[in-house]
Amino acid sequence: MRGRVHRFSEPIRDWFNRFSSVTQFLLVANIAVFVVQLVFMFLRSPLFDGLFALSGTGLQRGFFWQPVTYMFLHGGILHILINLLVLWFIGREVEFFIGGKYFTRLYFLGGVFGAALWLAFNWQSGIPVVGASAAVLACVIAFATLFPDRQITFLLWFIIPVSIKAKYLALILVALDLVPVLQHAPSNVAHLAHLGGALLGYLYIKQLGYGSTPRWMTWWESLKAGMRPRRRARPARRELSPEEFMREKVDPILDKISREGMQSLTREERATLDAARDLMEKKPR
After folding, report:
1. What is the pairing mode between strands 151-156 and 160-165?
2. Nearest CA-CA partner of 74 in 34, 125, 118, 27
3. Domain of 178, in residue numbers
4. Tens of pLDDT, residues 34-77
């Protein structure tokens, strides 16, 4: 992890360097908080959940930290076990690809955005919401956006091995939360929080410049471009030959990747790499 947190400030970097990755830090933090939560449950004290679980009434009382702290609390052993298993297997891959700094933002923004969407429809509710599911689902959708055709194998009900492409798994998970919301089905699961995390995961990875663009978004961008006033055409620039393009545009990007990692690239630089890949695929063998 030491090579992946160099963009953090010095105190945060020193703290994170105690762990091998941000994912490991999040696992340890979730387990530590759950142990404290179990102690209060054993004492039959509602104080801990009342202060740190998410609720509309809690925020109205000034507990402004709840949209962050709720994601470290859980409703039981199975709840935390599933979340942490998914985080361990999926989070490491996403963190390695986009870097520790951006992965940390993805995780916490997913949880906070999930909290915001749930609160938008449950502001007067005193029922507390706990769990890292919104943040973890943000990581799952991010993984599916980065590697849509990657095969994922998991144990259904911890018994039956199932293999499925990441993009299909993401669609199934979103559907499992979207259908109950549309049906207004009573549930003790915060489906809106999950959907908020999923949406954030997709938008955040797209904002970083990763993943293919859906057709509907391409159509929308083309429509907006057609509505803009036309500008005077600029003089045409000399077309670079494939060799010049690779030498002048691509080689500096490859050097940057070797120095700073894939996560350091800008959206324009990633687009250049995509263009280079298309060029190599079309090149006669």
Report:
1. antiparallel
2. 34
3. 10-208
4. 999 999 988 988 899 899 999 988 999 999 999 999 999 998 89
- Could you tell me the CA-to-CA distances from 224 to 15, 48, 202, 219 in Å, in that order? 46, 50, 22, 9
For residue 167, being part of any structural domain is answered with: yes
Backbone CA torsion sign across 146, 148, 153, 158: positive
Rounded to whole angstroms, the maximal C-alpha distance in the chain is 76
**In terms of Cα–Cα distance, which of 164, 157, 159, 116 is closest to 143?**
164
CATH of the domain at 184: 1.20.1540.10
Tokens (6 digits) for 171: 């669609």
End of a domain among 161, 186, 208?
A: 208
The mean predicted confidence, pLDDT, of the chain is 81
Whether 196 and 244 map to the same domain: the answer is no
